[in-house]
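Chain A, query sequence.
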Amino acid sequence: MFTYVVQPGDTLYGIASRFGVSVDAIMRANNLTGGMIYTGQVLRIPTAVGGGGQPFPLPIPWPTPTPTPIPDPGGAQLEQRVTRLERQYATLEPAVDQLTRRVDRLEAEVDRLRQRIRRLDQQD
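Chain A, predicted structure.
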């Protein structure tokens, strides 16, 4: 007999199939009255009759998930983006002001040229 630690997703049927024993044999060896098992539970697995060791190789351990960082919508990343955008705005604002003044001067020049054309048209 050997022990096995129940992994996430394990069932009695799956464990029994993996080790080539019956569900009833596992239940008897562990004094289980129902079919419920839980992750981390240590089960005794009966070995084949006459065998001194494990009848089958140990199962591959369940991989431990690596935690994935979840971005915090109000966290440092957002603050960095806002700061970068504020710097870009501060850089672009004087250029926009200069272009606006230039457009205003060009519009005034176009208005003067239109007035001259009207006067010339009236003289003809």
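The helical segments are 12-19, 23-29, 76-123. The chain has two domains: 2-45, 71-124.
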